[in-house]
Write a structure and sequence with these properties.
elongated, mainly alpha, Arc Repressor Mutant, subunit A
Length: about 130
C-alpha cells in the first residue's frame, strides 16, 4: 500500500521550510561556510535586510542555522548551517534537477505554441536575374 505523502509529518516539516521565500536560497549560500549578515546580503542581493533577518531568525528557530556572536569590539555575528541544515544539500540537488526539467518543458511548450512563421525563419527571397 502506498504511503500518503501529502499528509506525512516529515514531508510537511520540510515543506514548511521550503515554502517560505528565500529559505532554500539562504541555506544553499550558507553551504560554503559561516557568513556575516552583510556577506549574506551581498550574495543574495534581491532580499531586503528585514526579510533576511526574519528568515535567519526562523531558520535558527528550526535548528537549521546557528547564530554565533563573537565579542568585540566590534561585535561580529555570523551564521552557519547546523548538521540538520547541511542535510538540505541533497534536497537542493534534487530541486536543481527538477528545475531543469521544468525549464526544458517550458521551452518545448513555447516552441510548440509559437506560430509557424516564428518557428523557422524563411530565408530571404532572392531575385533571379535573367542571363543575357
Amino acid at each position: 500500500m502506498a504511503e500518503d505523502h501529502g499528509l506525512c509529518g516529515t514531508y510537511l516539516a520540510a515543506m514548511e521550510v521550503l515554502a517560505k521565500p528565500w529559505s532554500g536560497m539562504l541555506m544553499v549560500v550558507l553551504e560554503s561556510g559561516p557568513l556575516r549578515f552583510s556577506e549574506l546580503a551581498d550574495r543574495v542581493p534581491d532580499i531586503g535586510d528585514r526579510m533576511l533577518a526574519a528568515r535567519l531568525k526562523e531558520l535558527e528557530g528550526r535548528g537549521l542555522v546557528a547564530r554565533h556572536v563573537e565579542p568585540g569590539p566590534p561585535v561580529r555575528v555570523s551564521y552557519e548551517l547546523t548538521d540538520v541544515g547541511r542535510g538540505f544539500r541533497e534536497v537542493a540537488d534534487a530541486i536543481g534537477r527538477w528545475g531543469k526539467l521544468i525549464l526544458r518543458a517550458r521551452e518545448l511548450r513555447a516552441r510548440e505554441s509559437a506560430p509557424a512563421s516564428r518557428r523557422e525563419p524563411r530565408p530571404p527571397a532572392t531575385r533571379r536575374t535573367a542571363s543575357r
